[in-house]
Amino acid sequence: MPESSSQLGFELARLVESGNDEEARALVQAKELSEADERKWLYHLGNLLHAAGRPLQASAIWREVGTPPQVPPNELSLVTLLRRWWPPVLATMGVLTIFYTLLFTTFPRPFDLFQFMQAMSNQQQNRSAWDSFWDTGRPSWRSSDLYVQGDQLVPMLQDTIAKLLGEETDEKSAKDELAKWLQDYENELYGDGLSGLNYHIVVAKGLFNSRAFEDAIAILEQGLETEESAARRGQIYQELGTTYYYQGYELQPDGLARYDLPLVRKSVEAYEQAAPYSSNPYLFGNLGWGYYLLAEYEKAIEYGEQALQLAPSLNYVRMNLGITYLRLGELQDSLDSYASIQDYRPDRTEYEGGIRDLQELIREFPGQYPFGHFLLGYLFQMQGNYPPAQEAYERYLQESSIPYWQAQARHRLSEMSNE
After folding, report:
1. Contact 24, 15 (CB under 8 A)
2. Which helix (H) or strand (E) holds 244?
3. Nearest Cα residue to 175 out of 151, 194, 158
4. Is CATH 1.25.40 the classification given to domain 109-279?
5. What does each C-alpha distance from 132 to 65, 135, 142, 340 come to in angstroms?
6. 208 vs 153, residue with greater confidence
7. How far apart are alpha carbons 52 and 127 in whole angstroms?
8. pLDDT category, 328, cuts 50, 70, 90?
């Protein structure tokens, strides 16, 4: 590498930021570099272009350069040390893991209400990169390792409140004390700044996070029987809708989902009960998706548009509308809905939910929605993932009989081949 590598890196970043891509490339080629160093600097230029929001130009450079040559590690490099020490390190970690498991299964700790509430509070924090990666744009809560059986709840409350009050307490007073304490627990999931969650919602969340959906539903239904506040009943119905949805959501080994439609129906009915008391755009987005799954497309569009009025940047709702218009045969409206997410600068991973939805539709109705392949090609192309985009467009040309859209597919194939 040249002695002025830091200066060269700074100059490339400046040129890319100012939009002078060709000048940046010419600068690398003008240096008296070895072939290996020139390839590495061009690959670095591709990285800069991708980070600057120009993935197509970056992909063109990466395809030309290929994998950058690797620098042989010296004896003191991090790579060499890792290769030398990873077997004993992994072995040590394995022994510690076994010891930890034996220790905490032999001497289990009692459930702590405050830990439980802290975990519930943590759900309101920013999602991790791992959560974002798996986000499908569908209703979700962050998962938790905490799990409370329904028949364990009251004894746990009695024990915890006895510690708080310094005295024994019966079942009724335990619930009353918990209800008072929860009035100060602020919750932002429901909109309108409502606070004071009752213990049915808190416990149902813990059961939901453990995938004990039937127990969570039983707790929420019990809450509906006892809650008198209409707004709080709306909160319970919203949690009930999400729980029913995920009880009927089954992820397949190929990464696509199948749905139990009777449970989806129950989810939609619960969300409908919550809607009059909520201004939460996600609730209306979830309602729209539920009606799509039930093939009630007019209602799916109605609730999807209502969600976008409250939060225009919900790209997953825009893609939900796109696939809904596809089912209705309104091809231009479908493409326009998918294309509208470009106005909100989507992250590359945001396309994944829409891609999986289209793949699920094509799997369930083979040959019935050829335009689904065109839309798949479009989403892959916008994502910068050209090989599957090319495959999808070519599949559309095989199945399509509409000259206009065939010409559009050929034009997009030509665009990608020229970049």
Report:
1. yes
2. helix 230-247
3. 158
4. yes
5. 31, 5, 10, 21
6. 208
7. 24
8. very high
Q: Which two tokens stand for residue 249?
A: 């959501």
pLDDT of 164 higher than 60: no
Element (H, E) at 218: helix 213-226
Residue 13, pLDDT score: 79
In the numeric block, which tokens belong to residue 226? 């006892």
- Alpha-carbon gap, residue 46 to 55, rounded angstroms: 8
- Tokens encoding 136: 């499908």
Calpha distance 318→67 (Å, rounded) = 36
The residue extents of the domains of the chain are 5-65, 109-279, 281-419
Residue 320 in tokens: 């939900």
Nearest by Cα to 379 from 337, 325, 332, 419: 337
| Residue of 213, 340, 189, 326 lying closest to 267 (CA atoms) | 213
pLDDT band at 173; cut points 50, 70, 90: low
Sign of CA dihedral 387, 289, 187, 162: negative
pLDDT-derived band at 11, boundaries 50, 70, 90: confident
Q: Whole-model pTM above 0.70?
A: no
| CATH code assigned to 281-419 | 1.25.40.10
44 within 8 A of 9, measured Cβ to Cβ: yes
Mean pLDDT of the chain: 77
Tens-place pLDDT, residues 339-384: 999 999 888 888 999 999 999 999 999 999 999 999 999 999 999 9
3-state secondary structure of 234: helix
- The one-letter code for the residue type at 252 is Q
* HEC string for 348-401: HHHHHHHHHHHHHHHHHCCCCCCHHHHHHHHHHHHHCCHHHHHHHHHHHHHHCC
The contacts of residue 332 (CB under 8 Å, 6+ apart) are: none
Dist. CA 186–CA 36, nearest whole Å = 58
Identical fold for domains 109-279 and 281-419, yes or no, is: yes
In this prediction, residue 167 carries a pLDDT of 52
Residues 382-411 have a mean pLDDT of 94
CB atoms near residue 173 (< 10 Å)? 16
287: amino acid identity, one letter: L
Let me know: does 301 contact 320? Beta carbons within 8 Å: no
Residue from 365, 353, 268 nearest 326 by CA: 365
More confident residue, 197 or 219: 219
Determine whether 417 is exposed, middle or buried from the number of CB atoms within 10 Å of its CB (0-12, 13-18, 19+).
exposed
